[in-house]
Design the sequence.
């Protein structure tokens, strides 16, 4: 039986700052199985990034517990890789140097470690760019470098926060296929945040719909096998795709249970 590798148990999170306290996430329960690909969708401000930050250990829940691989999370670990919407590559470092920074920070500099980075750069079609600098690369290439950097430390779990949203449509579709096939082959556990319903359907095993004010899980939808088994580009042509799109659209349109106070 597959084991749940990410577990949120009745998690709530309150941000406190000089303007007061804000309940960003309330009573969330979520289980993600080893090797599963789960997408989070929902309106801006519903707590998607907060949820990833909680799983990564960057912030601690105000109430409840987050477990990764059976252990309560108390700080960031190399088990979890976090990739943000912006690539945050260092402009003064080459592509190779950017891709290997995580390993470098861990003090991993053996020939085998270098081979991991080179192999990933090759898999991502970046082997000819290893000596280039970020400004010489397209947006899609930069996101691929950021993905290599995240994968190089060999995390079991990947948290992807809108990784394709700044890209043009065609690049985004190509990258979806590349990421889905790469992560699938490595059997990674993935939590993807996206505002694109078609991307969520095309890439995931399961979609979690969140609502805002406060952030809560509204519903979960399983993606049918035929769509799951296809790569994202052809997944969009499978029967059942449009029906699922409309179902999710309806869930997102449902009125909030609580009054809206912020976007
Ligand atoms: P999403 O990623 O779904 O857009 P976030 O998780 O970023 O949502 O934010 C959820 C809510 O928490 C939002 O209303 C946001 O304004 C608030 N929030 C996020 N980060 C902070 C913070 N550091 N301090 C105070 N409020 C925050
Ligand atoms: Mg966000």
Sequence:
């Amino acid at each position: 039986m597959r084991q749940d590798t990410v577990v949120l148990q009745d998690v709530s999170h309150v941000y406190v700052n000089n303007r007061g306290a804000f309940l960003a996430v309330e009573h969330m329960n979520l289980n993600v199985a080893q090797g599963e690909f789960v997408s989070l969708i929902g309106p801006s401000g519903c707590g998607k990034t907060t949820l990833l930050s909680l799983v990564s250990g960057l912030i601690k829940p105000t109430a409840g517990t987050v477990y990764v691989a059976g252990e309560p999370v108390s700080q960031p670990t190399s088990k979890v890789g976090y990739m943000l919407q912006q690539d945050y590559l260092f402009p003064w470092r080459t592509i190779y140097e950017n891709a290997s920074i995580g390993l470098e920070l861990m003090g991993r500099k053996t020939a085998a470690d270098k081979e991991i980075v080179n192999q990933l750069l090759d898999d991502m079609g970046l082997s000819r760019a290893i000596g280039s600098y970020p400004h010489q690369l397209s947006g899609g290439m930069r996101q691929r470098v950021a993905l290599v950097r995240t994968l190089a430390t060999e995390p079991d779990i990947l948290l992807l926060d809108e990784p394709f949203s700044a890209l043009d449509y065609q690049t985004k579709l190509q990258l979806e296929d590349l990421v889905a096939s790469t992560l699938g082959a490595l059997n990674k556990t993935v939590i993807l945040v996206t505002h694109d319903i078609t991307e969520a359907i095309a890439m995931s095993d399961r979609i979690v719909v969140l609502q805002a004010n406060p952030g809560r899980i509204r519903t979960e939808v399983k993606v049918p096998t035929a769509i799951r088994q296809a790569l994202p580009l052809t997944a969009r042509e499978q029967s059942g795709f449009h029906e699922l799109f409309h179902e999710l659209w309806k869930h997102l349109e449902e009125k909030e249970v609580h009054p809206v106070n912020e976007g």
Summary: Residues 4-79+155-253 form a domain with the Rossmann fold fold (CATH 3.40.50.300).
